[in-house]
Write a structure and sequence with these properties.
Layout: H1 2-29, H2 36-59, H3 65-74, H4 78-87, H5 102-114, H6 121-155, H7 162-182, H8 191-210, H9 231-246, H10 257-264, H11 268-278, H12 283-301, H13 307-313, H14 319-330, H15 334-353
Helix pairs in contact: 1-2, 1-8, 2-3, 2-4, 4-6, 4-7, 6-7, 7-8, 12-15, 13-14
Length: about 350
């Protein structure tokens, strides 16, 4: 029994220790002008503080109350640092990061000063910790907006970039740790610490792959048989692509690269190479563009379509994938596009009358 406890302590404490090391690693990398690494470093730091508190409290219930308070207080910054790290993917230097950190840091400091854990254990257990976990959950929800496009790519069976797999792993890891702590009353208090160790080693594994020289993160890039496509073949494939539009083959939600190559009577490798190297996009994105053009025509000519049915009639297999693709390609929602087009037509008619 003693040996099993020692192993449990070793595994759970190891994650916290390595979390500190990784936090230092990313902090140093941040000097290379990778601003997002500061947030990742701080995220791992506050997670490690929370985990080390759990480990020592589990194996030593008489742990000093000040360490318990510090460990619980660290949770208030986990959500914000997760959000800021993922947000930095679209904004290299988030200008409003202070408002996501300082107010919570000031609040938990003031709260800890006037209601120290040692004197107000019941308040911390019943109220403060619950509020902290709720705030953590809210930031997980807010962070999901930066993960949603990656989820959509997974649903569309598109290849993920290395960075996208990395972000998805970080998000799911933090969400899993939150779930482990919020359900600890029904499982075991040490589950959160053990889950952090497990997730941390998965993240380390991803980090190793991320820094490798492979082109793709978890899928090997398709190797083209031809290093270069001659001009004649480029013209031929360019002309053949119009067949997909003329026959509206893209309206099939399951239309694939293999089916397109068969229809156009070219090899899959050659078609993939043309779309990637000559058009500068993936095949799935090309098909999405065709579908959005179809949707735009329907929005401009049809009045009895619901926006949901419009997506299905344009070749999308879900409402969410249609809305996401439309917004990404046109910069507006289908409803906004339809409204803008109607205004343009009315203005044109008014100008003609005058």
């Amino acid at each position: 029994m003693i040996e099993s406890n020692q192993l449990l302590f070793f595994l759970s404490a190891l994650g916290a220790f390595n979390g500190f090391i990784l936090s230092l690693y990313f902090a140093v990398n941040a000097k290379k002008k990778i601003f997002a690494n500061y947030f990742l470093s701080l995220l791992l730091l506050v997670l490690s503080i929370r985990i080390i508190k759990s480990v020592f409290f589990y194996f030593n219930p008489n742990l000093s109350n000040i360490f318990i308070q510090i460990g619980l207080s660290a949770c208030v910054l986990i959500g914000p640092f997760l959000f800021l790290y993922l947000k930095s993917y679209t904004d290299s230097k988030p200008r409003n990061w202070i408002k996501h950190v300082l107010p919570y840091l000031a609040a938990i400091t003031v709260l800890g000063f006037f209601y120290p854990y040692v004197e107000h254990k019941s308040i911390w257990s019943c109220w403060i910790v619950r509020v902290i976990y709720f705030q953590w959950f809210v930031y997980i929800i807010l962070s999901f907006r930066y993960i949603q496009p990656i989820i959509q790519k997974l649903k569309a069976k598109e290849n993920l970039k290395k960075l996208e797999v990395w972000f998805l792993s970080i998000f799911l890891g933090v969400a899993f740790i939150w779930a482990a702590y919020t359900t600890a009353a029904y499982t075991s208090y040490i589950v959160g610490a053990l889950s952090f160790t497990f997730i941390l080693y998965l993240i380390v594994l991803l980090l190793i792959f991320r820094n490798s020289n492979e082109n793709n993160f978890y899928q090997e890039k398709e190797k083209y048989k031809n290093k270069e496509i001659d001009l004649g073949m480029q013209d031929l494939i360019g002309q053949k692509l119009s067949i997909i539009i003329q026959k509206e083959l893209y309206l099939n939600p399951d239309f694939s690269l293999e089916e397109a190559a068969k229809e156009l009577k070219v090899t899959k490798h050659l078609l993939s190479q043309y779309v990637n190297e000559i058009l500068g996009k993936s095949f799935s994105n090309l098909i999405k563009e065709y579908r959005i053009e179809k949707a735009k025509r329907l929005l401009e000519t049809e009045k009895n379509f619901t926006l949901e049915s419009l997506g299905y009639d344009s070749g999308f297999n879900s409402k969410s994938s249609f809305f996401t693709a439309f917004k990404k390609i046109t910069g507006s929602t289908p409803a906004e596009y339809q409204k803008s087009y109607s205004k343009k037509i009315l203005k044109s008619e008014f100008d003609n009358i005058n």
